[in-house]
Structure formats: structure tokens, C-alpha cells
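Lab notes, practical 5.
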Amino acid sequence: MSIPVIKRVTLLWILVALLASCNSARSVSEPAPYWPTEDWRTSLPELQGVNSEQLVAMFEFIEEADMDLHSILIVRNGYLITEAYFYPFQQDAKHQLLCVTKSFLSALVGIAIGENYVDPVDHQVLDFFPERTVANDDGRKATITLEHLLTMTAGWDWFHESMRFEMMRSEDWVQFVLDRPLAEEPGTQFNYNTGNTYLLSTILSSNIEISPLSFARERVFEPLGITDVVWKADARGVLSPSDLQLTSRDLAKFGYLYLRRGLWEEQQVIPADWVAASAEKYIDTVWGTGYGYHWWTWGFGAYTAQGHGGQCLFVIPELDTVVVTTGGLATSVCELPAGLLEDFVIPAAESVTPLPENPQMVARLELLIEQVEQPPEPQPMPPLPEIAHDVSERTFILEDNDFCWQSFSLDAQPETRITFSNGDESVELTVGLDDIYRITDGGQVGCPYYGIVLDGPVGAKGSWVDEMFLLDLQFLSGGDFSLRFEFDENNVDIQVRDPADRIENIHGVSQD
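Output from the prediction step:
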């Protein structure tokens, strides 16, 4: 369990308040008197002009609404004033950021343009692929620019973002995107399209002198003191548009970099004009937000890097505030976390100078944070059904499937364990039958790049319902699986719901 950031600072209140009074004229647009390169410094909300009563109301609302959040962090004036990780998620665990990754790729493109590796945003996309012949071209594809890719206005016929799975199944992802017919005039309509980002990532990879991940480490992560990074690439070395993993604290650093207009300590990490362009609304979206260079813009003065399920990084320049959420929400955009900002966080930011001390509400906030980080009460475990003993320790060979799982075995005693294998590697998970996740460091079993892999650490809990075994896997990186096993003599039928809400049915036969 992480220690709430608001603990053990009350004794410093008078000293810090006196120091703050000396700097009360400091503009909120100026950086804090330190940089969080090594780590964030923490502060009580009231010291940063934030009313903790509103934050208490926010956590009470989250509990009442049963919001599936994994973490929430609030940074004001450069200080971490609120930090919570909802069980079983942990402070030091990297989280899958999904399409927040696109905003990082946008930053890398801006840096590469600033260093003259890549041509400016008005350059035609097809010029980067002179060796390719493009299908379904009526002449308009020659007008598509880098800016059209960045603002999701290239015009490809991309009727639903699930089309990215068709792209990922194709032999040549670049060709798949370039060959798509145009449904709209380039630059006129917003249409969210991971293919646009993959083209940008390919262009970046083809024009810099080192690997894209090395470029990202040197230009962005290392200056910010971010060392724990996972960012997958495909077989060509092109960075994924949606596979970056960072801790929530490190994601907040990236938001603070944008809040400081691309400056970090004495280094201009991202060109300031690129940060400004990224946060500018170029086009309206179907969700009522605006869209810039792979950043979303909101009417309440924030711009956001966002991914499915509540992976959200809000930057609010006027309030000198950064907010991070991660989660498993049933949403593709950040409207639910944005509601928390509008209803609680923004009203809480009452002053640019310290507010009066409020120890009662601080204590209440601390208690609520401690509660969300604790596991629920264990439930009684019913006796195992006969089928559990029948299938125990048997290995089931599986049909071909999108997860590349070749076999699994279930060991019901003395503690339930399940093992998945892809032929080369296997991972064994301990399963809680008392409604409490058992955390396993795990490993990785699955398809490289495409599909969903078992990538630890992971929490597992399950239950028997007649002949069925129900398994819930919650990866601390964010993805969750629901699996249903139906056994019939020597056969098993498995229904899998993955983090993208895809359903796959897999048949298996016992080899024993």
C-alpha cells in the first residue's frame, strides 16, 4: 500500500505557509522552485490553494458511482497534492496507456521536425513513401499532409476504430492505410484513425538516425528522469501507436512538461511552438471536444492525452494543474474523468495562494485514500465441485486463437492455479477463490505486438458455477480479461473477453 501524499506534513504548515506568503505574487505560469526529475514533492491541498473538502466529495462520488478507476493523481503548482491507487493497482506498477501513446508520438514528431530530421507539417505524406504504389487514388491523396495525420483529418475511409485490427492482421500496415479510399476531403472532417498515427511513427522511424525508442529515451524520457519504460515496436522497429507503459507518476511528468511549454530544467525538450500547436483546437470531434496534434481540447480550459478506459492526462494551464487518471471504464474517451475535473477539481482550485488549514478534511481525505487501496473483505469459499477434481492437472490443447495460447492446465488443489502456454513459454497464475486477487509476477504468453498477451504482474480470482469455471484476470498494467471455461468430459470451451471487449471462443481437448 502506498502512503498517501498528504500524510505527515502538518508540522511543516507554518514554515511553508510563511515561505509561500513571500512568494504569493508568483504567477501560476511560472515553474515551481524545483523540477520533479528525481521525484515529485508532495504538499497538502490547502497549501497549493486547493480546498480538500472538494477532493473528499470527489472520492465519495467515485465510491458511490462505483467508478472503475485504477489511479488518480493531482499536481498543483508543481506539487503532488493527491495520489490514490485503487486496489489491486500500485504506485510502482507501469500502466498500459493505450492511445495516450499517440500524444507521446506527436511529441517525438515535433522534436524530429525541430531538429530537421522530418519535414514540416505541411509536407505531403506520399512524398515519404516514394517507392510505393497507392491504390484507390483519385488524385486527392497527394494533398494529405503530416498535419492531416496529426489532426485526424486525412480523410481515409475508416468507418470504425476497430478497423485497426484489420490493419494489424494485414501483411503491410503502411500499405493497408495508404490504400484505403478517401471518404472525405483531406482537412475537412475528424475521423479517429490509429492508421494515421502508425504512418507518423513509420515516418519518424525512417528519418531519424537511431532507433525510435532510443530517440524517445534520449529526447524525452531521460531529461524527465523517466527510466522505467515499456514501449513495444513491430517487426520493422516502428513504435506502437498504443502500447506505451509508464507509472502514473511518470505520466504526470509528461503533463508537467507540456504545462511548462516543453521546458524541463534548463532544456527545451519539446519546441514551445509545438506544444502550443498541439494544444490548439484544429477540428471539432463527434464527442463535443476539439482536437489538436494528437491532443484533445476541452471547453473548461484543459487539453488531454487520452486512451480507452479512462487513461487520461489533463493539462490545465490557467490553474497550473496536471491531473492523471488510469482506469478500466467502459468508455473510449475521457468524459467521466473530465466530469470529475469539472465538478470537483476545478472548483477546488480556489486560490493561487495558500488557503486556511483544514485538518479535519485532510484527515478525511487521507482515510478515503487508504480505504480505496485496501482489498475487500474475503468471502467464504464453497467446496469445490466434482468437475474441479476431474479436470485438475490435466492439460488441454487449444485451437488456433488470436491470443496464441496453445494449451492450459488447471490445478485445483491445494490452491487453485492455472497455467497458460504458447509452446515456448508458460505462465502459472495463483487464483483467489475468496474474491481476493492473488498477485503473480507472471511473465508473458501471447502474440507479439498483435493480440493481447499475458504480461505480469497480474491479479487472478475465480469461482465455480456448476460445470463452469469463471476467471477474472486483472493486469496491474491495466488490461482485464474475463474467461469462462465450460468442461464436458474431455473437452473444454473457453469464452474470452479481452480488454478491448472483443469476444473469442476457443475449443480445447484434453491430451490426458
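Observations recorded by the TA: DSSP finds 13 helices and 25 strands in the chain. Confidence is low (pLDDT under 50) at residues 1-28.
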